[in-house]
Amino acid sequence: MKNLRWGLLAAGTIAAEFAAGVEESKHGVLEAVAARSGDRAAEFASRFEIPKCYGAYEDLLADPDVDAIYISTPHPLHGEWAIRAAEAGKHILCEKPLTMSVAEAEKVIDAARANDVFLMEAFMYRLHPQIRRLAELISCGAIGEVRAVDVAFSYNFAVPRLTDPALGGGGIFDVGCYCTSLARLVSQAATGQDVVEPEEVLGMARLDENGVDEVAFGLLRLPGGILAQLACGFRLTQDDHIRVYGSEGQLYVPKPAWIHEMRKPKTSQIILTPEGGEPEVIEVEATQGLFAREADHVATHLEDRQAPELTWAETLANLRTLERWREAVAR
């Protein structure tokens, strides 16, 4: 397979994690980076030994040596730059959420289709062997009929973008998107459907002085009669976890793949407790870092234009769920 030459559009913390992943990948190389500041781009390029750096995103998109663009700007800028990348003929990996609305996401997808380029929302956790094994256990009936799922993802610190509505602030779109994605995945594995959406969405939130959801809880009614309880926020101290309850037992993931330490190659655990039985620890080995796996996944599926785990239909379904959750907490 020909190496995929990456251009990084933005040079923040998550871009650094992805750059390190590309360095460890089998099929990716770092070709260029762009930031709003030329000095920032130069410092980032020096840090990762990237050949080219630009002080304008437009210059990155004009580089003929760049095959694919990784977008990690603040959320509200994703749509604009994904469309411009597609129009420049570049393949696209865009950080989650793809956009801040379903309507804008549909425009991005239309641009990718019209310009015949690959497009994937960067939900890297979905590619982790832990999550794939969890879905397998559910689909094979390891805990019988799935009745409920409980998902939590939060942290207790706030960078400026999180409290600014203009920058897409709030916990629901920042980390709650993982909760909705995982809950929907459980329903998909249980019912055998490719893509599902909740039949009902309820929610409550603690809003800050800017009207941004800093702590949010959601309740979904999913296909298969599955109820999902979601908790997220950036001013909330709790243990991240996944629990799936069935008619014949339960599954517990104490350290979901989105936790920082799980992004590196290591063994994780899924604990299966059958009804009336003793817990069984299922160990799942990851031999590749999660961002390296993500970069290689894009390279592997370029010709398909979509990734099988993260299709465009999957992205739209998750965004519709997020919109409904945010509407529920704003009432």
UniProtKB/TrEMBL annotation:
Q: Which organism is it from?
A: Amycolatopsis lurida NRRL 2430
Membrane spanning residue stretches: none
Record-given protein name: Oxidoreductase
Q: Which family does it belong to?
A: Belongs to the Gfo/Idh/MocA family.
Listed A to Z, the keywords are: Oxidoreductase
Give a yes or no for keyword NAD in this entry.
no
Q: What molecular functions are annotated in GO for this chain?
A: nucleotide binding; oxidoreductase activity
Domain GFO/IDH/MocA-like oxidoreductase, by residue range, is 131-251
Q: Does the keyword Hydrolase apply?
A: no
Q: Which residues form the Gfo/Idh/MocA-like oxidoreductase N-terminal domain?
A: 5-122
